[in-house]
Each structure stands twice: as C-alpha cells, then as structure tokens.
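Contributing new records

If you add data, match the layout below exactly. Sequence lines come first and carry their own label; structure lines follow with theirs. Keep one chain per record. Anything else will be rejected by the validation script.
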Amino acid sequence: MAVHARRHQHRFHLEQDGHSITVVWSTRRGRAEVLVDGKVVAAARTRRTATTELRGETADGEGAVHPFTVRLGRPDIPGDEPLCALETGHRLYLMPLVPLTADEAPPPEPTPPPRDPRVLLTRWYRRHHRRRPR
C-alpha cells in the first residue's frame, strides 16, 4: 500500500434526492463549505477537536423544502481519513471522500486473475498429477 502525502483539503460528495451535495473542507484554513448543485449554501469555521455541523436545505420541483445537516469529524487515528455524514429527515448517510485532483486519487488496484473453476481445476490437476509416481 502506498503512503500518500497528508492532504489539507478534502472533498466529500453525495447525490441525494436529485441534488448534488458537496462538502469542501480545508483543514489548514479551518473552514468548511457545503455546496448544493454547485452553489454554497453553508460555511463554517472548524475546530481541531470538535465535530462541525453545517445546516442547509434543498427544494424539490413542487417548492417543498428539505433541511439537512452535515457533520464533519476528524479521525480518531492519526493519518486516517476524516469522516463526513449527511443527515436528512431521520436518515444518516456517510458521504464518500472524493479526490480533488487526479494526483490525489489512489493508484488503481491490479485486476485479480480470473477465478474460473475450470482454470483452477486445471492448475490443481497439473500440480498434483506430476507428483504422482507411476
């Protein structure tokens, strides 16, 4: 596993009820912003030890307003990724961490070899067939 440099800016993203909700958190500046469909709807200063809550709302086509709360928390284990959760109504969604640039994206995992039973059986047969005395 490759060790990545410590990032000072994190982006979390989630598609919710037809809206694009993004959280951009700059740990160096101590500031977080919530964007709904690309527009800033909430911003707050963050503290090192406390969970930060940001409130916002979305509207559907009928004009109904849906409030939500975003909670940002620092990891308990140093070097681990921070956590971000979206609470809407009585549901809680974990927001995935999305890289800001291609350089920050983790390297792709290699494709595992095929696990076709026929291939595995052939390998096993060849390995054990050669060891049998005739």
